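Cross-posting from the modeling subforum.

Setting up a comparison between two proteins and wanted a second pair of eyes on the formatting. Protein 1 (sequence, then structure tokens):
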Amino acid sequence: MEYLLTLTCPEGVGIVHAVAGFLVEHGCNILDNRQYSDKDRGRLFMRVHVEGPDNSLDAMRVDFVAVAAAFDMQWELHHAAERPRLLLMVSKFGHCLNDLLYRWRIGALKADIVGVVSNHPDFAPLAGSYSAPYHHLPVTSGTKAEQEARLLEIMERDRVDLVVLARYMQILSDDLCGKLAGSAINIHHSFLPSFKGAKPYHQAHARGVKLIGATAHYVSPALDEGPIIEQEVTRVDHTSGPDELAAAGRDVECLALARAVQWHCERRVLLNGDRTVVFR
């Protein structure tokens, strides 16, 4: 049986020794170990992939509490084969939605998509073609709170681990962003921090940019300011109009979002304040 241990804690002497000793004591063989020391913030980050005795997860979780307490760790221990449950959200641009659904169907996305939520009915047939339940939650200024409550009900009922905003264009309330902290990923159709808000490709064209890109980040109450997980770019030139930029942008949006979602599902992304550590 394979397990994944992820942790972060203040830097100190003996942390790696304590973790390795714990794993040896529990009959685990380390298959892969990644670690990073953030000297500026004085924190250590680790992701350890191990092979160990079957059915020992619960006992290991109980026993690791003492090790974690000694070093003030924030940690998680999971089966490596565990598949997070994803809820996708979309508005009127479906390229990222279709890309994730396709990766899921062919087994390239190590997760289970349990449904699609949208404020428009447009992509119900697409979701249906992948046998993914579709939840149409139209949003107006008067229904926003009610629909966010329904979203939370869907998440609880379907035991959702991660929400993916696959070009969902409604701004989430601060309260909902707080509840989804670290468990919701957004794709921003711009190479942050440039060209925020509406029509970023028109903004880019007006500035004569030579690179366009997309940014996948965790959702936060500050619009498009959440911790960045992945960014992707492609070259353009003076001959590219807004439509050509948008077409190229769709490709990089799909790539950046798919990588970010995959890395999150493989527990390769650890939050570091307003930044992330990504063990690729």
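Protein 2 (same layout):
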Amino acid sequence: MTHSATKIAIVIPAAGASRRMRGTDKLLERVDGQLLLRGVTDRACAVAERVIVTVPNTTSPRADAVASMPVTLVPIPDAKDGMSASLRHGVRLVGSGVDGVMILPADMPDITVEDLRAMIAAFVPSTILQATSEDGTPGHPVIFPKTLLSDFVHLTGDAGARSILQRNRDHLHHIALPAQHALTDLDTPEAWDAWRADNPGR
């Protein structure tokens, strides 16, 4: 658990259709001996007391993957609307008493507990903090201050919270994470093959 005075809730959007995987579920791929979704959720639980995971429904294999973990599971009946549906429903359940909310995509195997801790330590509650790769390319996760959480109610489509970022770019700060940690998201079988070739044994 983080000892920082800053209180961050984490929302892990995991209700998407995984269509680009052409028949398999990227979040149920094994990484480091466990399902990807469970591994990402485990790291989130190591740094935040409040972790919310969105899933397609409560009987999905994704829900089973994290059912025993100390998280709030949120079924997304309108998941076909894209990432916005997960963010609308997930952020709404964050509750009070937090300084901000981290949006942590579920398909990022390179994000570490150390990365998450570094972001929480660097977060200033009046700003948005976005992770970048080592060379400064913007990626994920992103921490939003509590003052912007009401904006999530109005999100639509599959662009995530990009519109909120754009409207508040004057308050956007960046933090570089090691290598390509902030950019590695595995959406296709080809991406998985390439990542595994670069990370033998994982």
